[in-house]
Amino acid sequence: MLDELRERCGFPFVITSGYRSVKHSAEINKPNGGGTHTKGIAVDIAVSNGFERMNIVHEALKMGFGGIGVARTFVHIDMRATTPVMWTYG
With bands split at pLDDT 50, 70 and 90, how would you rate the model's confidence at 27? Predict the structure, then answer.
């Protein structure tokens, strides 16, 4: 699905984070054994402008990605099976 998302967006992706061990500092205090990265169903994609950010979010929603997090320098997408959710990073 990640390859399809990249094709739909029409620009290369730089993945800044993929699978993470539950011992990774960003996961260590999360409940249920860590977040979606520890389950191998999440990636963070580097973005350099609002055009890339918007296109990733737009296409990911159309494709059914269940989790989308938007930051200044990256977009998180995941394939969670729970209620879809979107958030921003402060």
Answer: low
